[in-house]
Amino acid sequence: MTKQPHESDVAFIQALAELLNKNDLTELEVKRDYGEDDSLEVRVVRQTAMMAAPVTYAAPAAPVPTAAAPAAPAAAAAAPAEDPAAHPGAVPSPMVGTAYLAPEPGADPFVSVGAQVREGQTLLIIEAMKTMNHIPAPKSGTVKRILVDDATPVEYGTPLMIIE
């Protein structure tokens, strides 16, 4: 850092900021030496508003209440109590990524609701960091529910399927 303030430093920093904006840069770092043990190090960073793509997560479909069904509020209140992650047959996501139900676009899915699966059988693929990770069935049984849609982003621990 500078031991003595230099009058040209303010103008130099302003010029760097203008250069940053003019050339559509996000960061610029410069070191200016004035002599032995006298220098100026400047780092100019422009904050950019990151526009995140909307992410949607699949959730179990809730029944649509109708005017003819007076018991609908009681059924709707009971629905949130059913947490798929708490189900003993839930298969949680072991990683963050994008879940694919088929080996490639247009192909048949690995499994469907009602299918019998055996332990170790591939249920789906999760793409993480450009790597396709096959997710095996933790136990043998019947696929009761598939809780994610094809090409859906998933978090660690997100319930993917229920096998009973």
UniProtKB/TrEMBL annotation:
GO biological process: fatty acid biosynthetic process
Any one Gene Ontology molecular-function term assigned to this protein's record: acetyl-CoA carboxylase activity
Pathway annotation from the record: Lipid metabolism; fatty acid biosynthesis
Gene Ontology CC annotations of this record: acetyl-CoA carboxylase complex
Domain Lipoyl-binding as annotated: residue spans: 88-164
PROSITE patterns: BIOTIN, BIOTINYL_LIPOYL
Location of region: Disordered: 69-88
Pfam families xrefs: Biotin_lipoyl
Keyword list, A-Z: Biotin, Fatty acid biosynthesis, Fatty acid metabolism, Lipid biosynthesis, Lipid metabolism
Functional summary from the UniProt entry: This protein is a component of the acetyl coenzyme A carboxylase complex; first, biotin carboxylase catalyzes the carboxylation of the carrier protein and then the transcarboxylase transfers the carboxyl group to form malonyl-CoA.
NCBIfam families: BCCP
Record-given protein name: Biotin carboxyl carrier protein of acetyl-CoA carboxylase
